[in-house]
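Membrane protein insertase YidC
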Amino acid sequence: MDFFTVVMEPFRWLVSSIMVAFHDWLGATGMAPGTGWTWTLSIIGLVLVIRAALIPVFLAQVRAQRRMRLLQPDLKELQDRYKGRTDQASRQAMAQDQMALYRKHGTNPFSACLPLLIQTPFFLALFQVLSGISNAAGKGEGIGAMSREQVLEFESSSIFGAPLSASLLHGGGDFTAVAVLAVAMILVMTACQFLTQKLVASQTMAGQDADNPLIRQQKILLYVLPVIFGVGGIFFPIGVLVYWTVSNLWTLGQQFLVARRPMPV
């Protein structure tokens, strides 16, 4: 095993264990264990568990973003003070003053990315599990916490005629069904991503100078993140697209609630 495989192994087990737990519970309630809808709901259950666990991180992110907005006048004053000074000593002094300013306000420029960064290993683990289903099924093996029988069940399961383990780029099953479902979910998740960034930007940009670095960053994220998700979606299995679509819907809902009911800094 390489280093990355070893590092990701606990995440694969955790992700697959949550999916299997939901799958077994849904089977106990009367749903057919081998159907695509049972596995789809298991993936949605995984999203709900991960995103619910990240609520404290999200709230901390929102507070950090608001502190970041409040420090913009001080940051602008600092940048004006060092404007035109390009020597090494001035650049180093400016960087130190900026860090002191961030510490004073209890925030940093990367706070907006924290929930996404924390969620990344779980997403990668799910991608590895679902993209490895076909290979594991061919070898008659399990993967993560999924038994051999569950791997075979998942491999043969589908929704709307599209196998959950198939992807737009690599195909599998009925290509038309896979393409229609994949494109539909890619459009939904990129639209959610765009609307979420639009909400964040509308709160961040309110009353701010258009030349402000934070404003420029928000404008870039507004268009770059949806493009990244849209392009990346062609590589994702249908099951992973289900995860990201539901996760992005959750994020949009969270941001909408925050926009309607501002929290104290």
